[in-house]
Amino acid sequence: MAKRTIIILCLAFLLWGCGGSSSTQQNPDDSSAVIKGTSTKPDSTIGKANTISIATSSDKGVDLIVKNDCRNCHREREKLIGPAFTAIAKRYGPSDIDTLAAKIIKGGSGHWGDASMSPHPSMQVSDAKTIIKFILQYK
Prior knowledge:
It is a single chain. By secondary structure, the protein is mainly α. The chain is built from 6 helices and no strands. It has helices spanning 2-18, 43-51, 60-67, 85-91, 97-106, 125-135. Helix 3 packs across helix 6 and helix 5 crosses helix 6 (125-135). The longest helix is centred in the N-terminal third of the chain and has 17 residues, at 2-18.
């Protein structure tokens, strides 16, 4: 039952995110826009980053992202209040997991502009690390 609820919520976010507005302009720096034959990234990286999705993944990190307030400020491939998951994955690597997990728990500001990230003091360190490991797959 919980899995069905998560799937329904994810689909609702996906449909809401699509919006259907024809006036939306595509940002050339947006990593979700892939034009065949024009990317400088290796094909395996493009394929992996574009197939990862909160709506379709069964990763435990997705469950934690959906259960917590991550989607209030972050999106997969576009900046909202905080950076997109793809931007986080580009800037950080596996050696930054502990630092980023601490930032989720303690909060922080100044690394991505003026907006500050609210602290999540009740989150377990292991859960924060699981979220970061999932986000880093967007590389």
